[in-house]
UniProtKB/TrEMBL annotation:
Name used for this protein in its record: Fibronectin type-III domain-containing protein
InterPro entries: FN3_dom, FN3_sf, Ig-like_fold
Fibronectin type-III domain residues: 356-455
Database matches in SUPFAM superfamilies: Fibronectin type III
Lineage, top ranks: Bacteria, Pseudomonadati, Bacteroidota, Flavobacteriia, Flavobacteriales
PROSITE patterns named in the record: FN3
Length: 554
């Protein structure tokens, strides 16, 4: 049979012929390859009684949602995926009726005793029957056989000594000579043999073992088992006997634990793995196996530690930088039980640091009321082939901390334009670092400082004033602006104090003596070092009089 589902597969036709005859006769078909609650099963070769019970089971699976409708084209498309194909194979192997419902099984009620038949499975591709069978097998009606080629029988604890897993291998070359349905497994209970598998055991694990679970084994006495091959006609072969002695089984098989993976070494030193395993099982260990995968690829064995007292391994590759690797440590016990550690993912970055940038410089320009700082620098050296991009760090006037600012943009050129985020003047700091192809960041460049003039100055806000007879004290609020030179005071629209007399750190002004019983209007204006003026504050009216101090506020 092909390992993948052929494209445009519509269904199957099962044919047979007597041995040494040339002519095929149809057993069943065409059988459509789909899952549908409305599908007809009249061509599966079922008896009326069997067909009725079969329909009832499939209908109940559809109604419960355990089985879902999948038309032919979607089913074929999905099963092109090897993982989904494997899941599908597992599902139909558990329930033969589901295989029938999907179009992967039928019955032949016209088999004569002692007659040898050859069966052939023909595919329907694009509604056309293929001329050659995709698979054939041989059986003899009512055939009985003798099969004793079973070996490597062993027992593993599932949860405890009562709940165990039985495993065995069988000689596949001999087994393929027989038309069989799998194995039945029995456990002796006094003079009786009790079957412990609900359905025939037909599937093997990746290591070639058949297996079945026994949840009622004796945890103290020797258990005796019989493994029997079943023919297509439900005849069982001779009784192959095996024993399980719970007193020879380790109660708890501990798994290794990966403690540390060190990969930031130089490339020729590879990756170092450190692991451990419980002291209680160390004397039962035969060896450790080191397994590595490059996802999504499979795990492969890359090394063996024969000394069970050694708990480190140096993987020297070949390894590819900037790739994720998965590691597992498998402990192989002396009874050949194998238990793997948890899978650990590791991103491999050999320690290759790019050179730090140099000669960082800046220019400032203003355009359409927006201010830009252009940063330029040079690579650490002309032979640098490691650097892939650059990280830009800038301070913000409110915190002055250097922060990475180009996290949404990869900078690969030695130039970056930074737009100043504030209208008010401020001092900014910048530095640049290199990011290498192995994701190591260099030391930052020298830090430079850039002063930016204000585009707009805030308006001063007069908060309160105090009148004391014919003098007054005026108080205002104003934020810290780096290029603020000072303030101007206007009285009745005339400039009376300039920024040369009222510096940037001042937030109050004493008027000096004025005329008694007079009204004055005061305004304040902020001035930058470049001569830029803010809008004047909201004017306040102050009235002098020959009385005690009065306090007013906005």
């Amino acid at each position: 049979m092909p390992k993948t589902v052929p494209a445009n597969l519509n269904g199957f036709i099962l044919k047979k012929r007597r041995e040494k005859e040339r002519q095929w006769s149809v057993v069943a078909g065409p059988i459509s390859f789909e899952l549908s609650s409305a599908k007809s099963y009249e061509n599966l070769g079922l008896t009326n009684e069997t067909l009725l019970s079969f329909r009832e089971e499939i209908d109940s699976l559809f109604q419960s949602g355990k089985l879902k409708q999948i038309d032919n084209s979607k089913l074929v498309s999905e099963l092109q995926d090897s993982e989904k194909l494997q899941e599908f194979k597992f599902g139909i192997s558990i329930n033969y009726n589901v295989a029938r419902a999907a179009g992967l099984g039928c019955d032949d009620s016209d088999v004569q005793m002692g007659i040898a038949y050859e069966y052939g499975l023909f595919l329907m591709i694009n509604q056309k029957e293929q001329s050659r069978p995709v698979a054939t097998f041989r059986l003899v009606g009512g055939e009985k056989f003798f099969f004793n080629r079973i070996y490597d029988f062993n027992v593993r604890l599932f949860t405890n000594k009562r709940n165990v897993q039985l495993l065995w291998r069988a000689d596949q070359q001999t087994l393929n000579l027989f038309a069989h349905r799998g194995f039945n497994v029995y456990r002796r209970n006094g003079d009786e043999w009790i079957k412990i598998n609900p359905t025939p055991v037909i599937q093997r694990n990746p290591d070639g073992f058949y297996s079945v679970y026994d949840s009622s084994a004796s945890p103290t006495e020797v258990n005796e088992y019989s493994i029997r091959l079943i023919s297509f006609f439900n005849f069982e072969d001779s009784e192959n006997f095996f024993k399980y002695d719970p007193n020879e089984i380790i109660e708890t098989y501990e798994k290794p634990e990966i403690l540390q993976i060190i990969g930031n070494l130089s490339y020729d030193q590879g990756i170092l793995l450190n692991f451990k395993i419980a002291e209680s099982v160390q004397r039962h260990i035969d060896r450790f196996e080191i397994w590595r995968a490059l996802p999504p690829g499979p795990f492969t064995k890359i090394g063996v530690i024969s000394d069970p007292n050694t708990y480190s391994y140096n993987d020297k590759g070949p390894l590819i930088p900037k790739e994720y690797y998965a590691y597992r440590i498998k402990a192989v016990y002396k009874d050949q039980t194998e238990i793997s550690s948890d899978e650990v993912m590791f991103y491999y970055l050999p320690k290759i640091v790019p050179p730090r940038p140099k000669n960082l410089r800046a220019t400032v320009r203003t355009q359409n009321m927006r201010t830009f700082i252009t940063l330029e620098w040079e690579k650490g050296n002309q032979q640098d082939t490691i650097t892939q991009e650059f990280y830009i760090y800038a301070s913000h006037p409110l915190s002055n901390d250097l922060r990475w600012i180009n996290f949404e943009e990869a900078i690969r050129e030695t130039r970056f334009v930074y737009e100043v985020p504030m209208d008010q003047g401020a001092t900014y700091r910048f530095c640049v670092s290199s990011l290498g192809k192995y994701m190591y960041e260099s030391e930052p460049s020298d830090t430079i400082t850039v002063k930016v003039a204000s585009k707009v100055l805030p308006v001063p806000i007069i908060k309160r004033w105090e009148v004391d007879s014919n003098t007054a004290m005026i108080y205002w609020e104003y934020p810290d602006v780096s290029d603020l030179k000072g303030f101007r005071i206007y009285r009745d629209g005339m400039l009376i104090i300039t920024e040369n007399d009222l510096s940037a750190d001042r937030r109050s002004f004493y008027t000096g003596p004025m005329r008694y019983f007079s009204q004055y209007r005061f305004e304040i204006e902020a001035i930058s070092h470049d001569g830029m003026a803010s809008m004047r504050s909201v004017p306040v009216e102050i009235v002098t009089e020959k009385k005690k101090k009065q306090v007013s506020s906005n």
